[in-house]
Design goal:
The chain is of the alpha/beta class. The chain has one domain (51-236): Rossmann fold. It is built from six helices and 13 strands. It has a seven-stranded mixed β-sheet, with helices on both faces.
Length: 241
């Protein structure tokens, strides 16, 4: 039975609408922070997948070679629905990690990962780096544990209106951080120079915008309720010469 125009690609539910979400702090609106401020189509009312989960899901679903048999994938701060799908792929060696969360395979600090060099073929790390004061070290650690030829999806809230990333590590009070960065546990608002930070660590970076793709991402009508402004940061580690 057909209940609406929209469809959740994760759970397959047909919907009249997605549910709104996002934080409404003034700085997020003022700086037009993509992935942070209020949006009209964040949650699937059936499975509760978020707009950013649906984007990553569709990106990987339409690039099956990225999850080829034997791929060892590390998912940091795993999103519930995306994690559930990945864990069910029998050909994937899937590992989850977090600093504090329960029900993950590994616990570690992203600035000091207790794993050997070149451990994983792939990494997913979404909306984590904006929480970490020493993000340069964290990005370098992600690069270190990625195998040559490997890839990483490294999403973060980002402001297209800021000329440079805004951070002030002297701001430690939760209320002040909320006012400055839009969330009590954030330590910066990234600008597009985020790409330079990834490249400094050694990553190659492709900026993928789903609006430039065909109907497999929902087309002009945005059938899958994606964030109209969100781009996907697809990082890679080159093969050794």
């Amino acid at each position: 039975m057909y209940f609406g125009f929209y469809e959740c690609p994760v759970c397959g539910a047909y919907l009249k609408a997605f549910l709104p979400g996002g934080l409404r702090h003034a700085v997020l609106v003022e700086k037009s922070v993509i992935g942070g401020g209020p949006r009209s189509s964040v949650f699937c009312p059936a499975c509760r997948s978020t707009d950013r989960e649906r984007l990553v899901y569709l990106f990987l679903k339409n690039r099956p070679h990225l999850l080829a048999r034997g791929t060892k994938l590390l998912h940091i701060a795993p999103e519930l629905n995306l994690s559930g799908w990945l864990r069910c792929l029998p050909e994937l060696h899937y590992v989850t990690a977090d600093l504090c969360k329960s029900r993950v395979d590994l616990h570690f600090d992203l600035t000091s990962i207790p794993l050997p060099d070149s451990t994983f073929h792939a990494i997913i790390c979404n909306h984590v780096l904006e929480h970490i004061p020493d993000d340069a070290n964290a990005i370098s650690e992600l690069f270190r544990i990625l195998k040559p030829g490997g890839w990483a999806i490294l999403q973060t809230p980002i402001s297209p209106s800021l000329p440079h990333t805004y951070e002030d590590l002297t701001i430690t009070n939760c209320t002040e951080r909320e006012r400055a960065f839009g969330q009590h546990d954030h330590v910066r608002i990234y600008a597009m120079d985020y790409v330079d930070r990834l490249k400094t660590a050694g990553f190659g970076v492709e900026i993928f915008h789903w609006r430039q793709e065909d109907t497999c991402f929902g087309g002009n009508a945005n059938k899958f309720g994606l964030n109209e402004e969100e781009k996907l940061f697809f990082a890679s580690r080159a093969y050794l010469q």
